[in-house]
Amino acid sequence: MNKSKIVIDKNYKKWLTELKSRIRNVQLKAAVSVNRELLLFYWELGADIVQKQTDSAWGDGLINQLSKDLSAEFPDMKGFSVSNLRYVRQWHLFYSEQNTNHQQAVGDLEKELLSQISSIPWGHNIAIFSKCKSITEALYYVGQTMANNWSRSVLVHQIESGLYSREGKSVTNFSMTLPKPYSDLAIESLKDPYIFDFLTMTKDYSERDLEKGLIDHIAHFLLELGAGFAYLGRQYPLHVGKRDFFIDLLFYHARLHCYVVIELKTVDFEPEHTGKLNFYIKTIDEQLRKEGDAPAIGILLCKNKDKMVAEYALSDIHKPIGISEYQLTQMLPENLKGSLPSIEEIEAELNSDEGAGV
After folding, report:
1. Contact status, residue 283 vs residue 319, Cβ threshold 8 Å
2. 16, 29, 298, 300: which could form a disulfide with 261 (CB 3.0–4.6 Å)?
3. What is the value of pTM for the model shown?
4. Residue 6's pLDDT is what?
5. How far apart are CA 101 and CA 137, in angstroms?
């Protein structure tokens, strides 16, 4: 028998699978460790650059010279370009200058803040400090990136859509209808307004048109809804007594462990809208809710709302409901359309430039 060969049985396969998993975990930890060490170095480098430019006569030429010298010594490293060194300087200045209005001391800032910002990739950090106006806003996006494993493109989209200023702003009765801390988590899961910039609707679109558009772009819709939402169906049927009813959209929230009923309105909010949604939530709790499920919640998405009217409407509703507005793609005002060049005019201009050798 050839002792250099083994029998590939189920025990070996199981062990091999475990080894592969452990190796991947080691690779991930190594990558995270390398990223953290690189960003800690960038932080110190940024501080050095700021100090040298302040205390010496080197001025603006420092970054150009430093880039040239470091790139020559470390040609395989891409982090020493002029543009990246400027980002390193800006990154340090962003948090240092913001700290003048921050309650924590610099030492505490470096301990607590650096532990967070060094946990996400450098490209994500650039997007955050380039687009955010305060440490509080920046750290919100750092935390969301870590919690949801956002790619850089998703992060940029969330920042540009103003997620920080929209999250938790929905009018709800959650504090009265749900126990803490569940009510706080539910409030944080809603936004106001919801931005459906991936949709372009006709002027007189219907609720069914809006519903279909959202489901046709379900990936974008789920991204806007936020982490945890799982789509279950549209026009979801419910049978009560001798009648059939249909929910616009039904989801299950994996983090809240509850069903989420979404009703769409293409008009301004009216108090009677909550009565119908309250009925749907009651029916879901009676017919679908199982052991381990939290109470179902409802989200009413409307074109516009009067906040006080919405609060009054929810004050005597016993099921948890949130009311938010939604916004579609911003269309150009009619008075501007005529002043803009047509597609044909743009193409003609481009062809003219090409012919002139531009």
Report:
1. no
2. 298
3. 0.77
4. 64
5. 14
